[in-house]
Amino acid sequence: MYIENMQGPEDVKKLTLEQLPVLAEEMRHALLIRASKHGGHFGPNFGMVEATIALHYVFDSPKDKIVYDVSHQSYPHKMLTGRKDAYLYEEKYDDVSGYSNPHESEHDFFTVGHTSTSVSLAAGLAKARDLKGEDGNVIAVIGDGSLSGGEALEGLDYAAELDSNFIIVVNDNDMSIAENHGGLYQNLKLLRETSGQAECNLFKAFGLDYIYVDKGNDTAALIDAFKQVKDSKKPVVVHINTLKGKGYAPAEQNKERWHFSGPFDIETGKPLYAGGEEGYEEITCKYLLDKMKKDPSVVAITSGTPGVMGFTKSKREEAGKQFVDVGIAEETAVALASGIAANGGKPFYGVYSTFVQRAFDQISQDLCINNNPATIVTFLGSVYGMNDVTHLGLQDIPMLGNIPNLVYLAPVTKEDYLAMLDWSMEQREHPVAIKLPGGKLISDGKTVTKDFGKLNKYEVTQEGSKVAVIGLGAFYGLGQAAADLLQEKTGTQATVINPYYITGVDTGLLEGLKKHHSVVVTLEDGILDGGFGEKIARFYGESDVKVLNFGLRKEFLDRYNPEDVMKENHLTAEQIAEDILAVLK
Amino acid sequence: MYIENMQGPEDVKKLTLEQLPVLAEEMRHALLIRASKHGGHFGPNFGMVEATIALHYVFDSPKDKIVYDVSHQSYPHKMLTGRKDAYLYEEKYDDVSGYSNPHESEHDFFTVGHTSTSVSLAAGLAKARDLKGEDGNVIAVIGDGSLSGGEALEGLDYAAELDSNFIIVVNDNDMSIAENHGGLYQNLKLLRETSGQAECNLFKAFGLDYIYVDKGNDTAALIDAFKQVKDSKKPVVVHINTLKGKGYAPAEQNKERWHFSGPFDIETGKPLYAGGEEGYEEITCKYLLDKMKKDPSVVAITSGTPGVMGFTKSKREEAGKQFVDVGIAEETAVALASGIAANGGKPFYGVYSTFVQRAFDQISQDLCINNNPATIVTFLGSVYGMNDVTHLGLQDIPMLGNIPNLVYLAPVTKEDYLAMLDWSMEQREHPVAIKLPGGKLISDGKTVTKDFGKLNKYEVTQEGSKVAVIGLGAFYGLGQAAADLLQEKTGTQATVINPYYITGVDTGLLEGLKKHHSVVVTLEDGILDGGFGEKIARFYGESDVKVLNFGLRKEFLDRYNPEDVMKENHLTAEQIAEDILAVLK
């Protein structure tokens, strides 16, 4: 086996051109075994095996610097840069992260995980090289799906200004996570069909040199191409035509399903673990499809992640023109929603919490200044969400919670959520965002009659005294549990409050609490800085009421265990009850 | 005069083709008189007179909907849609805003002011039209300078998906605010030089139909073109070649100077009011040029607004390769800075407060997760900054203040700022942002010896008791004034503190205050929600110390008088002292 001897890129260069495809097969085999047991990004890595080998065969990493976009396709790179063991031996699978990581290797230059960043980041490496008068190649690798993102297109536009060595490898597998959307993909198709010969060429239109490699999974062809551009004195695009999921038939056939996979049976491709119970994805999709049938002006928008809101291929077909995928383009998703609302439509934009921050300015300017009635729903904004440092969902409360005019709501139950949607999708007064709770879905079957149009009205769910616990969204239950513990320990029943509104303070209710309460406690599923609890602390700042804010410290966590993080942040019911007791004393 | 009779677009249609150029001259004359007395965006409006006439001649606004990018070129549109008086009569000059405004007219669809949004917003109008089964044209107008922004490029990419009427008018005057930067401008040049015939065409590469109008200031040529595309069933780009500042010789000759102008003498073009004293623009430019000479790895970055940091054309030439304009592309500016820092360079990114929010995700992900030592400086983030609703600088504290790893600093004086730069540009540990104070520049000549590398250490500048006043940045002086008043009234000297750090709490110092202080007051130049003061309120939440947070309410202000806003927010020294007294009682 060659792969077992790969200590670094220098070992790739020792192989003959004939041996490289064998290395590729070995790597793919290891990737398959690991994926079947461990899960992870699948299709992107299977398509990039040969290109990665060719890059390390031709270039001299780390002097030559390779920057991967999203870096969910960097497993082969890690295998060839001293980290093969994490792909060969099960006990070492967790030694590496799922993304490029400078803490792991000098061959990685950035911790990344969001799309469309590689060209601009790599341009920075190249610019610094030029300022320092150094040489060496800088290579940005970017997938076709990532090209639709504003930062990537800005980067392509800026690249031509470099006027020095800069190589952009466009890994074109004709897929985003789902199918691509956007006019530029017609041009990529034209380029593939003409072997790169078409005169109308997106990359040339951005002022860049260009070469095309039809056989993007052929090491020899790729090596030829990379040798051509090595040490180029001008920015150049190498457009390679690859097959996503190459080498595993189920993944070649159903690319969307195999973009990312949990553990599975290699024979059949079937997941080892059955899907969970009904989640907010399915609930959302069902709600929207039903509403679309009754109202042609309802439209669901995604920015390249239709799965987040349950829109599988068949559901997308069912929705027809009432489902819009703008490609990976969060800014345009928000602006589009605002425009649709301005013209009387009823837009819904579903987005991962970690990605909603890609449209801060559009939410503030395009949407909220204009007060257009669009609905944004954030998914997995929770300590129980994704736990890679690049995919945290702990920032959306400070991010969305402080933008004027926006109404940001925190449902606790499925029933809350549906009632909020019923209100939000029909009202014409406010831009609305809804923060879906993380953790286990709660459905209590209760009918929600609350009028969400009466803004910032919190609800007392348990009358009590001395202590009031305000539990926001996913942490409402934790607040109730802490209140119960407190009652056990002191005999005093605390008041428990469901605030519903992240973006506003119920001054009447809070004022009223002063009479019989000496401590007000807040809980929120996100970082405390700039969050919900601090608004309550400010409200009571000049009063005698004590305020305790519970939530997460401001930090970038990485690959954490939620239970550990909860404990470290004093977020178990026991810890909360103890902290309250300490203040009561 | 025709212009005096223009009650709405229907009156434009009543003129003959021969009369339209006369109307254009009348409009330009009115614009010139108004600009010379009132100031405003100059070049963009002078270039768009004929195109605006032609749009209203051919299309039927408001059924046909025109969306302007930035909308700083919408003065001619306002003149033709019922708002001519605001351009003809000096006493009515302030009846209109400087940007499109749905509150003024049914012919305006969005309140906008940031760049690169028109295509995506207008796409939303078109999508809603299609969902509702209506007809009518939707027209997005966008300048060449705005095309470099990610949202615009995303919008061009998405547009082809519409598959229905959608017209994008690209107003190409071969200028951004300063000269254009980016590879796409080579393509625009090629298209201009070939009368739109070149096969390699950025817009076609995005899947769009395309026509070219060489005479972009000729009403007849424009009317021909617009008639061609009217009621088109497919998205189409109309690329028009216009002259920025057309009709006023000084503006045609020095386009950068005349992008925006204050009042001036029409004969000479000279400003009526002399420039102010030295500001942070000049101080920043001088500092950077000096540093660049000593260190070739220092690089200043702008995203299309070099003037914000004092880099006039001659200064840019002086800096050479050490000055980078990425075009209007804030996302790429931040990523580039991160990449430069990662490779050992010393990047400085200067940006208006109102625009820094266009790069939230890049600051969080590309920069702060990677902990790269770049320096970002925010300008005009202040109640004393720009006062159009689309250009407020009141959001940067909640926006930047809650991102992990970022060190956000608030200087009070010029000397503070320079000392912060000295530290920030040389350290290799942290991403740093500096919030320049608004209002009158303060220089006290004092040497600043503070080591900013010891994070979150506030400074007590006046020892006192009972009350501690923490005045952040521009509001430090206000805090001192309130403390002085308090002393006058009560005889008690308050402690006064300069916190310097927006992003962290000096727990040691705050803990120590508990001993001899019952009230802690915070002041900040921005909205309170998610801001600095709330962190202090949280810190003291469970203690007996009372906290009063002073700052601005969360709202979108528009064209306000700063003194009024200060009073309304209880931000005069008298009001603050009174509020403190009320709590002391």
TrEMBL record, chains A, B:
Transferase among keywords: yes
Name by which UniProt lists this protein: 1-deoxy-D-xylulose-5-phosphate synthase
Entry similarity comment: Belongs to the transketolase family. DXPS subfamily.
GO biological process entries: isopentenyl diphosphate biosynthetic process, methylerythritol 4-phosphate pathway; terpenoid biosynthetic process; thiamine biosynthetic process
Catalytic activity, EC: 2.2.1.7
Cofactor(s) the record lists: Mg(2+)
Matches recorded under SUPFAM superfamilies: Thiamin diphosphate-binding fold (THDP-binding) (SSF52518), TK C-terminal domain-like (SSF52922)
Annotated source species: Anaerotignum faecicola
MF (Gene Ontology): 1-deoxy-D-xylulose-5-phosphate synthase activity; metal ion binding
SMART domains: Transket_pyr (SM00861)
